[in-house]
């Protein structure tokens, strides 16, 4: 593309050295030779872009049609193995979600909604998560694609799998949230855990990846890292730096809280510093990357200043480690830029340069007036993340990772096949025993106060003064009924 400049090169180089370093003979751990081309599988359902959340709602599934259209018009399909995914079954979806919640999602429609009104609050449907025609079909489509993509990686059928319709990171076990109903990411990671000892989740959506963090808050087999805007108020209100995980999962949640207007160089620098350290410490055997495009400049809901090129460099950096990779969509509300961004990232994943002039296409009017792949998106907002803030943030994260390095739970050797099942009985017991012994430290015993590491409270990272809800974190979902009310059947 010829858009790279020298300062980019200086701040953000390819990571093939790390890829070589990361070579391992551990089962379920593959590394691509640094310079070989990846085999990339692309999961797209032709109908997924036809669902509508509602006229005034910012989430527009049509962006998926636009993205796929550009991918095809650029000829990228020739470098991809393209799959029409099958829908997720109820059984697959209830591997994470509560039966009564899924029963509700299946049965409620705009026409019968009034009969279900008493459940709206409980399952958090309403303005953010409206009931729309085909809502559950939509969920089955995007979740089915993520599950199939995870299975493709497990089978060794691809090095990288892409599902731009997935990445709905806010959905909880028994509750919709932030435009998300079914958490395909959690379902995909659960699938990956059947085979891969450790899964890293990375989230570059401008919103905190709360649903995924919460689902894996108490396990050391999944590390979650979210970069997001945080001021204690911005949706979903979580993602403070000191949310680090608990029990076996302590130190395995990493939060990178950012202020408005972060620019390309700052973001890329921080992303690279943090992710290189995370990957070298945690040594994931698979990576799931949520590529929410609301972190771009000029997003309808976002307030960062990133260009499409910078967003793509994060994808490039993760790819450069050569670890099996599942790439997902997420937020993104200026849909012409979402389509540009995810098309560009598809090209990065297949190592192909694209002309900055968009090819002729039926949706050309969406891309006026410039008709380019890389419109100018930055400079709209002042960068409120100064160098001192970013440097301290980086240091604190590296300190957290050092705790993880010394933690007895992070044994990097092979996990014997017979204990690879996720949260099987033995692990449950082990966790409970550890929880008992650490009960005095548990956030739930601190009346909503969050456990601190070292002295990290007394500075920049304690500037919100909010009372976070400790109850909502560290949730376990298997074999553990929630409240009696949540485990009753739906009755209309
Ligand atoms: F502006 C709107 C118009 C109609 C309906 C909803 C919105 C809207 C904008 N921002 N809703 C929000 C956020 N919700 C609130 C609520 C007000 N409170 C009481 C809560 O601020 C939700 C933003 C969701 C972002 C979703 C996501 O981008 O992270 C995403 N990732 O993957 C899929 C979606
Ligand atoms: Ca995020």
UniProtKB/TrEMBL annotation:
CC annotations in GO: Rpd3L-Expanded complex; Set3 complex
Catalytic center residues: 170
Naturally occurring in which organism (per UniProt): Umbelopsis ramanniana AG
Taxonomy, superkingdom: Eukaryota
The protein's enzyme class: hydrolase
GO biological process, one term: epigenetic regulation of gene expression
Any one GO MF annotation of this record: histone deacetylase activity, hydrolytic mechanism
EC number: 3.5.1.98
UniProt similarity note: Belongs to the histone deacetylase family. HD Type 1 subfamily.
Domain Histone deacetylase span(s) in chain numbering: 57-348
SUPFAM superfamilies given in the database record: Arginase/deacetylase
Record: residues binding a divalent metal cation: 205, 207, 294
Catalytic activity: N(6)-acetyl-L-lysyl-[histone] + H2O = L-lysyl-[histone] + acetate
Stretches with biased composition (Basic and acidic residues): 431-445
Region (Disordered): 1-32, 427-492
Protein name (record): Histone deacetylase
Location(s), subcellular: Nucleus
Keywords linked to the UniProt accession: Chromatin regulator, Hydrolase, Metal-binding, Nucleus, Transcription, Transcription regulation
């Amino acid at each position: 593309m010829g858009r790279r400049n020298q300062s980019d090169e200086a701040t953000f180089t390819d990571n093939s050295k790390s890829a070589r370093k990361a070579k391992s003979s551990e089962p379920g751990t593959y590394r691509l030779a640094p310079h070989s081309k990846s085999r990339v599988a692309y999961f797209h359902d032709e109908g997924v872009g036809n669902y509508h959340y509602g006229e005034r709602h910012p989430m527009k599934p049509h962006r998926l049609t636009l993205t796929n259209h550009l991918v095809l018009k650029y000829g990228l399909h020739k470098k991809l193995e393209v799959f029409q995914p099958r829908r997720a079954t109820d059984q697959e979806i209830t591997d994470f979600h509560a039966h009564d919640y899924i029963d509700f999602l299946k049965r409620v429609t705009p026409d019968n909604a009034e009969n279900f009104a008493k459940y709206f609050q409980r399952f958090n449907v309403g303005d953010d998560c409206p009931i729309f025609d085909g809502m559950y079909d939509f969920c089955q489509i995007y979740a089915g694609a993520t599950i199939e993509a995870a299975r493709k990686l497990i089978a060794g059928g691809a090095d990288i799998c892409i599902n731009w319709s997935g990445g709905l990171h806010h959905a909880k076990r028994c509750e919709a949230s932030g435009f998300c109903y079914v958490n395909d990411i959690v379902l995909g990671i659960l699938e990956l855990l059947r085979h891969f000892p450790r899964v890293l989740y990375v989230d570059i959506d401008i919103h905190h990846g709360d649903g995924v963090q919460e689902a894996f808050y108490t396990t050391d087999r999944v590390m979650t890292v979210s970069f997001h805007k945080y001021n204690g108020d911005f949706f979903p209100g979580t993602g403070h730096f000191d949310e680090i995980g608990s029990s076996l999962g302590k130190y395995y949640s990493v939060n990178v809280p950012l202020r408005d207007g972060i620019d390309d160089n700052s973001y890329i620098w921080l992303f690279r510093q943090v992710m290189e350290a995370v990957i070298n410490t945690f040594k994931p055997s698979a990576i799931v990357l949520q590529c929410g495009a609301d972190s771009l400049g000029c997003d309808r809901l976002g307030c960062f200043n990133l260009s499409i090129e910078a967003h793509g460099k994060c994808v490039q950096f993760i790819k450069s480690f050569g670890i099996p990779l599942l790439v997902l969509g997420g937020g993104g509300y200026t849909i012409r830029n979402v389509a540009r961004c995810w098309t560009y990232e598809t090209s990065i994943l297949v190592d192909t340069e694209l002309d900055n002039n968009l090819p002729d296409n039926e949706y050309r009017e969406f891309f006026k007036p410039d008709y380019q792949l890389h419109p100018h998106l930055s400079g709209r907002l002042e960068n409120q993340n100064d160098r001192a803030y970013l440097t301290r943030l980086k240091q604190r994260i590296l300190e957290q990772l050092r705790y993880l390095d010394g933690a007895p739970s992070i044994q990097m050797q092979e996990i014997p096949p017979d204990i690879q099942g996720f949260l099987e009985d033995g692990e449950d017991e082990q966790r409970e025993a550890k929880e008992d012994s650490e009960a005095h430290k548990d956030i739930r015993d601190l009346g909503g106060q969050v456990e601190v590491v070292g002295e990290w409270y007394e500075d920049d990272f304690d500037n919100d003064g909010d009372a976070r809800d400790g109850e909502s974190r560290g949730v376990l979902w298997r074999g553990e009924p929630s409240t009696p009310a949540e485990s009753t059947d739906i009755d209309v």
